[in-house]
Amino acid sequence: MKPKQFYNHIGFRLAAPILTGIALYFLILMFFDSVDMIMSNFFSREIGFIIFIAFVVFEANRLLVVLLKKLLGNRDHVRTIVLLHFFLGMVLTVGLTSAILYLYFVYVEGFRTIYTELITFNSLFVFVIFFYHLYYFGMFYLNRENKQKLAQEMTMKENIEIELQRFKFQINPSMLFESLEIIISELQTNKKQADFLIGQLSQMYRYILDNRLNDLVPLQDELESLKPLEQLFLSKYKTAFSIHLQSDSPIPDLMMIPGTLCLLMEYTITKNIITDTLPMVFSISWNENEVKIQYAQHLRLDQNEVVSTRMELLEKAYAHYHSTGIQFNLSNNVQQIRIPLLAVEEE
């Protein structure tokens, strides 16, 4: 249900004429009488008369706004619409105010000439209605700008969600082939170890498939998902590869995008040289706000574009969920990756 515009809101329609009438009454008393006579004349019937004029003028301009909105809609000729609003509003206000003043002062008060009163009242009410329409267009353009921003944000959100789905459904073929090469290599020397690695590989991809429809998973599950990957690369690199979980804090009940840690491991392994002299040691720690991965960087000359593309998708997804996103910091050849932990807000 759309919220009512200010000019259709019952509170505004009742309060605006009363407050405007009182304010104009003070101004008229100051103009015709003096400051000393304000309190003695405050409770006279004229204040009710001015409030009545204000009510009629406000209601007439409200109907004018509604009518022009229906007739003109959201046409592109903005300047013409604005000028038409102000011109018709002024004409309507002068016409109504003059007619009511004439009837009241001539037939009720018995005045013969009301030239001064006409100029005074019309000037004041035209001034008020000018700001009435000015406020209307201010709210109109603010509302239109907010709608445009909301539409842009919704489009951006939809794009991020599409890219996130692409990330979750995407299986890195290079990683799969490398895992199969490791298993084939073990088959020639240790069939028992090869069977174990097949089980680890199936666990890794089972985790991907099980969470393909989940936007977020607990940090505990993400840490557990590293174990099969660790076993596969331990078989290939032996002592040159290790993952160390280093944190004195208990694992917080917070969330991550599924596959985050595995992808970061893949991304790092494919980008770096790993040998006995240049070992790859991952240090993973966490607190109540983030997970931190740290390792010594030794970049390869050739880079895996598939993994880099998936990393871009992951970075966009975290930037959508969190203001800081994933942060990379390289210092003294030590790469540090900080991933924000996400909380699920209950509606």
Question: What does this 3D model show about the protein?
Answer:
This protein has 347 residues and is α+β, with helices and mostly antiparallel strands. Helices cover 64% and strands 10% of the residues. It has two domains: 6-165, no CATH class; 172-340, 2-Layer Sandwich (Heat Shock Protein 90), CATH 3.30.565. The strands form two sheets. It has a five-stranded mixed sheet. A two-stranded antiparallel ribbon has the order 1-3. Helix 6 (173-187) packs across helix 8, helix 7 runs antiparallel to helix 8 and helix 8 packs parallel to helix 9 (260-271).
Please summarize what this structure is.
By secondary structure, the chain is of the alpha+beta class. Helix content is 64%, strand content 10%.
Largest sheet: 5 strands, mixed
- Strand residue content: 5-15%
Number of strands: 7
Can you tell me the residue ranges where pLDDT is under 50 for at least 5 consecutive residues? none
Instruction: Kindly state the percentage of residues in helix.
Output: 55-70%
What is the level 1 CATH name of the largest domain?
A: Alpha Beta
Number of domains: 2
* Backbone shape: rod-shaped
> Could you tell me how far the N terminus lies from the C terminus, measured between alpha carbons in angstroms?
19 Å
- Counting H and I runs of at least 4 residues, what is the number of helices? 10
Helical/strand content category: alpha+beta
- The CATH architecture designation of the largest domain is 2-Layer Sandwich
Return the string of H and E elements: HHHHHHHEHEEHEEHEE
**CA radius of gyration:** 37 Å
Q: What is the third-level CATH name, the topology of the largest domain?
A: Heat Shock Protein 90
